[in-house]
């Protein structure tokens, strides 16, 4: 294909890209098919992802440790599906770490509403600059130890697919 190229003066012209002009997209989509419990009132809970649902390119996952093979700026979209066995409306924090250090200004707080055993999704979107071999991890915390990430099995009447407890799209 061709693209419009501006030369800085006059009308843009159609040009054919040279080999190596464009970088392919690097991506991965992973979910968790398990409930994930709160490790304690002061615990930073690592979000685990156990299933790859889209073929990944340049991004890999090992139980929630996301590794990048290609440097760049990536958009990271993470959905965490929270529930609590009590109706206390707990506050939950979620954030990113890169290479073992928390990323500044990445924490997003969320309040679980609706009473005991309801499930609510929290969606976080981050833009992260990574080097080749960098790793990202998603953490969450609630001082209410009744909070967990909830996997929901497939349903019937009507038939519907399962819902993961967590998903990450890069």
How is this structure best described in words?
The chain is mainly beta and 170 residues long. Helices cover 0% and strands 49% of the residues. The strands form three sheets. Strands 3, 4, 6, 9, 13, 15 and 16 form a seven-stranded antiparallel beta sheet that branches. A hairpin with a 2-residue loop joins strand 7 and strand 8 (65-68). It starts with a strand and ends with a strand. The mean pLDDT is 92.
Provide keyphrases for this structure.
mainly beta, 170 residues, elongated, seven-stranded antiparallel sheet, 49% strand
Order of helices and strands: EEEEEEEEEEEEEEEE
**Number of alpha- plus pi-helical segments:** 0
Termini gap: 26 Å
> Pairing-aware structural class of the strands and helices?
mainly beta
| Number of E-type strands | 16
Helical fraction: under 10%
For the residues shown, what is the average pLDDT?
92
**Largest beta-sheet characterization:** 7 strands, antiparallel
The poorly predicted ranges are none
> Over all CA atoms, what is the radius of gyration?
20 Å
Strand content: over 45%
**What characteristic shape results from the CA principal axes?**
elongated
